[in-house]
Amino acid sequence: MSVYTTKQRTVLLDFLQNNPDEVFSADRIAESLRSEDISLSAIYRNLAALESEGKVQRVTKGGSRKVYYRFKAADECKEHIHLSCSKCGKTYHMPLPATNTLIDDVKKNTDFEIDRTETVLYGVCKACKK
Ligand SMILES: [Zn+2]
Ligand SMILES: [Zn+2]
93 C-alpha vs ligand 2 centroid, how far in Å? Predict the structure, then answer.
């Protein structure tokens, strides 16, 4: 790996780290990092690498094939379900007790076991409802 690609990776990771509660499309990342001179293909390449390392999560929105990326923050994020606002794109972390109640309820009623690490629910957040 050249020094240059390492720098691109650092810039990309910094950007995602600084916006941990938002999801971004690759296009949007490219636009935000325009001053850093990173090509879209370099962004895709680095995102794929970060995803395979478990640092970034790929997210798709219902009904759309567009792919978004989200920084996987702390380990605790493996335990709870995430809520994504369709209006502002912010990610909210469902408290663990609420996550457990939801998962137990669905299991009891449908015998279906939700994968908590992969589940993102879409809706409208409190701030956007105002
Ligand atoms: Zn979380
Ligand atoms: Zn919102």
Answer: 13
User: 3-class SS at 116?
Assistant: coil
- Which of 96-107 are b and which e, b meaning 16 or more Cβ less than 10 Å from the residue's Cβ? eeebeebbeeee
**Which residues constitute the domain of residue 105?**
76-129
Ligand nearest to the CA of 87: 2
**Digit-coded pLDDT (tens) for 98-114:** 999 999 999 999 999 99
Single pTM value for the model: 0.57
Residue 130 is predicted with a pLDDT of 87
Q: Which ligand is nearest to the CA of 130?
A: 2
One domain, residues 82 and 122: yes
Nearest to 85 by CA among 128, 118, 24, 56: 128
pLDDT score at 58: 86
